[in-house]
């Protein structure tokens, strides 16, 4: 009875062992299937991620290229505008100064008809107006001085002529005085002769 019971227990244990082995085998198969599924999903996710990464990288490169183009264009525009402004500022400063220098040179060379025209309301324009006013005043002074010099020269010429005339008149008066003195001497001599003749006659 004990042997049979032991045999039954052994049999029952072996059946349970087989059942457990079968369950473990099924669990392994299920685990392998689950692993394959997870691996497939991971692979799909990895491929999708790589594709997205490549796509994002390409887009980033394109955006960066576009940004570089925009930056280069903006830099070129900024440089162009800077050059235009520099030329404009240079012309707005140097041209009036060149006009002022040319005007001063002409005036210094004696050109009284030199003109200075600068249509500007900045400091250079105000300076040119003040300079033109000063030159106009100086021009008036020089013109008055020229007129006075001309008048003085004319008066000097008249005085020289008058002096010459006076000298000539003085010479004529001296000559006439000498003639009168000579005539007086002749009259005196004649009177003396007449007186001597009268004394001899008496």
Would you mind describing this structure in some detail?
- The chain is mainly alpha-helical.
- The chain has two helices and no strands.
- It has helices spanning 2-108, 123-201.
- α1 (2-108) runs parallel beside α2 (123-201).
- The model has no long low-confidence stretch (mean pLDDT 76).
Write a compact overview of the structure shown.
92% of the residues lie in helices and 0% in strands.
Write the H/E string, N to C.
HH
Helix fraction, binned, reads over 70%
The number of E-state strands comes to 0
Number of helices: 2
| Unreliable stretches covering 5 or more consecutive residues | none
What would the average pLDDT be, to the nearest integer? 76
Radius of gyration computed on alpha carbons: 68 Å
* Major sheet summary line: none
Shape: rod-shaped
User: In percent terms, what proportion of residues is strand?
Assistant: under 5%
CA-to-CA gap between the ends? 248 Å
Structural class: mainly alpha
Secondary structure blueprint with pairings:
Elements lengths: L1 H107 L14 H79 L1
Using brief descriptors, characterize the structure shown:
mainly alpha, single chain, 202 residues
